[in-house]
Design goal:
The chain has 314 residues and is mainly beta. It has a single domain (1-314), classed as Sandwich (Jelly Rolls), CATH 2.60.120.1440. It has one helix at 168-191; strands at 2-3, 9-12, 15-20, 25-30, 39-40, 46-48, 54-58, 64-67, 72-79, 82-89, 92-96, 105-109, 112-125, 128-138, 144-146, 149-152, 158-164, 205-209, 214-218, 223-224, 230-231, 277-279. Strand 18 (205-209) and strand 19 (214-218) form a beta hairpin. The longest helix is centred in the middle third of the chain and has 24 residues, at 168-191.
């Protein structure tokens, strides 16, 4: 690990900002982990969490990798135009923004080599991935899977529609996004008060906000995250919205320690195809939004969905 080297620092409204230029920066740590906040992860270095641990890592601006407890991941490439990460064990969620077919985010889990090609939410565990919302491509055969699909290789290659539900890991991820979007609003308003501000330097970048204790995303234009939260660009005059779409769907919200029938007031999840199984990460619920939320646990348990059953995680 190396200390964060900043590219730009300025004083605006008594707040300092630092700009991040590569993927793999540690944005938030809770509990047991092998990394510290505000450090960059070198390619090939394993990032791990222990019991009760949680880590948030930055990808390209607007995208996050959030690790559950008892999880290990490693970055193979960290250039913003060429990011590649492997999950070695445990569970993680990726909130993706700005990737496409030409410039995908490469993720390896087990024998699966996948490429995220669309904004969305993706759950990964050992040898499995669930597309909560978005689009992902199998690098080995070019097949593209969209909302509601689970792809696995634990018992031979399989791809099936499943009914997803909002889990503790995804709920914590959503709460982090909500808190970051609110911090974005504060920073954007503050920066607009600075005379002769070089606005181009604050478009589609990560900025460190000391009062929040983390990097936040500053978009280049109007932006709504995959969870449905609105972000303000420095060049915009007004904040344009608030609420959450919560994984792009409705109907099967909530999280639980087992079956996927409980509802969560602030979130809902996308549904899969009829007759599919329920899939999600199982854990106790985080108690609050932002950095103080208890760590989500690794693993996932499928509920009984009136058809096929699927288990994601250990």
């Amino acid at each position: 690990m190396t200390s964060l080297i900043f590219v730009l620092m300025l004083q605006a409204a008594n707040t300092q900002f630092l700009v991040s230029t590569k993927a793999g920066l540690v944005n938030y740590v809770q509990g047991s982990a092998t990394v510290k906040p505000a450090t960059s992860v070198a390619p090939g270095t394993i990032v791990g969490t222990g019991p009760g641990g949680a880590v948030e890592l930055l990808l390209n601006p607007g995208s996050y990798l959030r690790m559950a407890e008892n999880t290990r991941v490693v970055f193979d490439k960290v250039e913003l135009s060429d990011i590649s990460v492997r999950i070695l064990e445990g569970s993680m969620v990726i909130e993706a923004n700005g990737f496409n077919k030409e410039l995908p985010l490469s993720v390896t889990t087990g024998n699966l080599k996948m490429e995220i090609i669309k904004d969305g939410i993706y759950l990964f565990a050992d040898g499995k991935v669930v597309v909560v919302n978005g689009g992902i491509r199998d690098a080995s055969n070019g097949l593209v899977y969209t909302k509601g699909y689970q792809i696995s290789d634990d018992q031979g290659y399989r791809a099936q529609k499943v009914k997803t539900f909002t889990t503790a890991l995804e709920l914590w991820s959503q709460q982090r996004d909500e808190a970051i979007s609110q911090a974005n609003l504060n920073v954007a308003r503050s920066l607009r008060q600075v005379p002769n501000l070089p606005i181009d330097s604050f478009l589609d970048v990560w900025l460190f906000y000391p009062s929040f204790g983390s990097f936040i995303y500053m978009p280049g234009a109007r932006y709504r995250s995959p969870y449905g939260y609105s972000y303000l660009s420095v060049g915009q005059g007004n904040y344009y919205g608030g609420g959450s779409i919560a994984s792009g769907g409705s109907g099967r919200g909530g999280f639980s320690n087992g079956a996927s029938t409980a509802n969560s007031g602030s979130s809902s999840s996308s549904g899969g195809g009829g007759g599919g199984s329920s899939v999600g990460f199982s854990s106790a619920a985080p108690a609050s939004t932002g950095a103080s939320a208890p760590a989500p646990s690794a693993g996932a348990q499928a509920g009984a969905g009136g058809g096929r059953t699927a288990t994601l995680g250990k």
